[in-house]
């Protein structure tokens, strides 16, 4: 059985779908953290709940009972996606919350599975750990220097995973996700906001001049990679999960406008201090390990997200 934390979230819900499709038994855990509406997370997993190979626990992994709940379930691998996401929302004011859910919770789940026969622990890290390196593409061998507190919290999670892996003979894979998009994307993320705003004739708020660039990777390509990694014998690895090219915010809005055949109402505002200007993944290791035979092009991926958002909001 595979344990997935954050199972009702963006990547988590799509990952559970993929794992079940590939014949795995899945234990999904989520506490429906209040970073966005619970009904959206319930919408994401509603089709999974009737599957006999899917067990869902509405539970906080910080709860001491978590250790007892997974006792005897023969967990072979853990994919730890649960955290409080969002560079823009993590600050000195609320960092205690991020410490609790991004760092302490990671330690708790690792503590719960040690000496329990778990073979593999896959940790969802982030490209934010790199900060502004001044060197593109961003390589796994680059010394991480996060410029956001969120990035700091994710880097701490990587270190915890490595510590427990070395101490308790668990194969650790730290995945540094670049900007993931597609169906089930969180409402606070750029493409979700852009698509919804254009459809509903609402203002699109763009921080800065919109020339900042991101490496966008489609969610189903991400989850296919995770499923593939479950079969690979990797002991202590850091892998970028990205496409290896970047697109500006302005250009991404233009693509969405063209696909919807409708102009957006763009409002430019002050840039965010802790936001990276450009991200682009070095994918050499990713390509070598994954033997990838497909990539979802940006237009196809955005079109699928548009269909999801129309269905979600009944537009």
TrEMBL record:
Residue stretches making up the NAD-dependent epimerase/dehydratase domain: 2-242
Alphabetical list of SUPFAM superfamilies matching this protein: NAD(P)-binding Rossmann-fold domains
Cross-referenced Gene3D superfamilies: NAD(P)-binding Rossmann-like Domain
One Pfam family this sequence matches: Epimerase
Superkingdom of the source species: Bacteria
Matches recorded under InterPro entries: Epimerase_deHydtase (IPR001509), NAD(P)-bd_dom_sf (IPR036291)
Recorded family membership: Belongs to the NAD(P)-dependent epimerase/dehydratase family.
Annotated protein name in UniProt: NAD-dependent epimerase/dehydratase family protein
Organism: Anaeromonas frigoriresistens
């Amino acid at each position: 059985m595979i344990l997935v934390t954050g199972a009702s979230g963006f990547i988590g819900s799509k990952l559970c779908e993929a794992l079940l499709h590939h014949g795995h038994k899945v234990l999904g855990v989520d506490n429906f953290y209040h970073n966005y509406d619970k009904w959206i997370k319930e919408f994401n997993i509603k089709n999974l709940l009737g599957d006999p190979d899917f067990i869902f626990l509405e539970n906080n992994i910080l709860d001491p009972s978590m250790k007892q709940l997974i006792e005897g379930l023969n967990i072979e691998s853990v994919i730890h996606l649960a955290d409080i996401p969002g560079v823009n929302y993590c600050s000195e004011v609320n960092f205690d919350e991020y410490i609790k859910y991004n760092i302490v919770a990671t330690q708790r789940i690792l503590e719960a599975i040690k000496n329990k026969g778990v073979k593999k622990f896959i940790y969802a890290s982030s490209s934010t750990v790199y900060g502004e390196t001044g060197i593109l593409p961003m390589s796994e061998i680059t010394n991480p220097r996060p410029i956001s507190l969120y990035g700091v919290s994710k880097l701490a999670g990587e270190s915890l995973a490595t510590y427990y892996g070395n101490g308790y003979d668990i194969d650790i894979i730290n995945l540094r996700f670049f900007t993931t998009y597609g169906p089930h994307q969180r409402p606070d993320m750029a493409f979700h906001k852009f698509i919804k705003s254009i459809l509903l004739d609402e203002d699109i708020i763009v921080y800065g001049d919109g020339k900042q660039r991101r490496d966008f990777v489609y969610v189903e390509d991400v989850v296919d990679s995770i499923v593939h990694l479950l079969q690979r014998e990797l002991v202590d690895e850091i892998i970028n999960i990205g496409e290896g090219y970047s697109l500006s915010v302005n250009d991404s809005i233009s693509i969405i406008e063209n696909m919807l055949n409708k102009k957006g109402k763009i409002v430019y505002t002050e840039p965010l201090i802790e936001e990276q200007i450009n991200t682009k993944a070095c994918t050499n290791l990713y390509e070598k390990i994954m033997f990838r035979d497909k990539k979802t092009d940006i237009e196809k991926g955005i079109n699928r997200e548009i269909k999801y958002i129309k269905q979600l909001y009944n537009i």
